[in-house]
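Hi R.,

Here's the chain you asked about this morning:
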Amino acid sequence: MTENKKVSNLEEYNNPALYDYENDGIREDINFLMKHAAATEGTIIELACGTGRVTVPLAEAGFQLAGVDIHKGMLDEAKGKSVNLPITWLEQDCTHLQLTLKSRLIYMAGNSFQHFLTNEDQDKLLKEVNKHLEDEGLFIFDTRFPSADELLAPENQEEHWRTYEDPKEGKRVEVYTITSYDQTSQLQRNTMIRRMMDEDGTVVRERQSDITLRYVFPKEMERLLSSAGFEILESYGNWKETPLTDKSTQMVFVCRKVRGE
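And here is the predicted structure, written out as tokens:
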């Protein structure tokens, strides 16, 4: 995947403040990563850090971090809410990192692994993670579980996802998704539709954005990580450390670097 294609797949993140608002309250990954950060010395690296939803709380707890993302707007939002915190923000492509440090802990949250759409890009990402990890260092990340409910949803039909109140205008926003899944490429194409409603139910504004996500199956992930020089220490069905089963909605992996690339 070229860098231009990667950037074009980030349309869903072009309103960083709205992203923060819609994801406010998610804490499970932060709590999980806090425990591992407490056992880590030196700078911790977060890849695909976005607006710093996870980075900032870890820095507020006293940890030194480097946050990497390809989206300038998301990083600008992160910088604005992290003044005087021990964070270095870096605008870089995670498949071509140019960092001047190695870490004992690299993590990636928010199912960001799904943004690496091809085998080549997954391999490049893991190669860069390996290169920037100290020997025996940990890589922790999550990705959505490819369940039947997730992949076999009715195609090209609007499905209601959530409702919330717009923080600026105070109007109700109804969010819908339209999805289609290509089994050959393991890519799910999603259109997000946000409709702002007046009190009488009239649509006063509508915004659409597209995003494509890659799904990886558990055994496929085992082979992928092993080939990249990692050993899976723990795998869970969510950040609360629930066992991974065929009813899971997420996969969370704690991996250790066992050989260099």
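One quick note: The first helix runs from residue 3 to 8.

Cheers,
M.
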